[in-house]
User: What shape does this take?
Amino acid sequence: MARVVIIGIGHGVFGRRSDATVQELAFEAFRAAIEDAGIERDLIDASVIGSVPEYHKQRSLSGVVQEYLGLNPKPVWLTEVACASGSAAIRTAWMSIKAGVHKVVAVVGCQKMTELTTPEILALMGRVGEVQWESIFGTTFPAYYAMFAQRHMHEFGTTHEQMLQVAVKNHHYGSMNPCALFQKEITMEKALASELVATPFNVYDCCANADGAACVILADEATAKKLSKKTVWLDGMGAATASMSVLRRPDLVGLPSAQEAARVAYAMAGVKADDINVAEVHDCFTIAEIMAYEDLGFCKRGEGGKFIEERRTYIGGKVAVNVDGGLKSKGHPIGSTGVSMTVEIAKQLRGEAGERQVPGAGVGLTHNVGGIGQYTFVQVLRRE
Amino acid sequence: MFKWFGKVNFSPYTKVSDFAQHLKDGRLMGSRCKKCGATSFPPRADCGKCLSGDFEFVEISGKAVLHTYTKIVAAPTGFEDVVPYTVGVVDLKEGGRLLAWIGESIAEKEIKIGMDLQVVPRIFEELEEIKVYYSLEKPGTTWGRASEGGAA
Ligand SMILES: [Zn+2]
Assistant: This one.
């Protein structure tokens, strides 16, 4: 079957964007992607929006974005699976091209999280888990991942310092990314001294909310070859789920949805974990990146802590991970994050990542997790 | 009256609403499918195995082992007045898992993954309206129970 190709990428600045509406943020990324692809806007057959609606005052976000991008009367729809909404949008665009329904599709991840007041955010924060049996005890998003961290420490001897080494690495690379919310290096001393959130996590174990947008334009193989020389191939597309409730998971040291999505994506692309040169993984919390190393097969179960300690995920190590700064440094506009990951891998495979370029990167991967691993999407991308 | 369950309740209407009445009377209940016998905690009305909607409540002992835990310092809406609090996930003796606060019978420095615990049904004494929950306590902790047959 024909392959699906990324022909254009665009990325806005992530941060506290009190200067722009969500559709204006979407426009920044869309315009950059159109210019990157070098195509006329009317070539786009459809668009898919990745976003989480409850953060926006505007109901039915797709309508206002589609209008502002000037894409009427072409069809648009929204995908929502929490923090993995962006990758879900890419997946449905990929499906529509594979099915032969559309030839060129724009995928826009866009999110404004700072429209809400602090009380509104605190109320949303209290409903992140399963609400019938868990949220009634005041569970929070950091608390869930903290419980994974505690169990990982108990079973494998992983240390909090190893977790914070993930933060140190990601802030190091984020200092080279002009689109990141935090563009400063941090030291281990500073990370260890930051305020407690939920044991063992303190502030530097957690990513920050942000506003921002990212865009990719996908096309079928024949159209892409006519239109573009900067092609990146979307060859492995894995998606999987796990129970909403952490009470019904087989264990609390990894994400079964990530393991399954990786298996599917590797098989579809015909690659192994060892073939991946550069990866974007969902580091919403430091332990999440360590579990991702293990779920994706970059190292064995339980060895993720040692893997970062030995700097195996820096550029020049076994596999470069989150060398755009990850969620930790870029910030996490939840609907945009998955698209942002795909933009970065495309940039790496095109050799355009500047001072954070992974030399000779030929095969890349994205790993985008929704919620506490209820949903995971894994993509394998190739330069050729 | 499932709205009784939890300091803040988000789901007052459910097919397992008698769970909260049992808890108020001092009994911790799981569910059992009447067709295939599959059991579940948390209880569920619709069998995850055979899809039957015919279920009954079965009392469980509340004997449990701590699987993981965390002390929460940054609390969401409705929990500001109880912060900091420690939540634990336990493996129940009869199968299934449960999430709850670690109670006052256990000092912070005694908390260890793998320790034995007892799930204890509780009522918020300080609140005027009826609010029930359960907490994780030292094995051997006792609590009051309504006489048999008093429950809905
Ligand atoms: Zn059954």
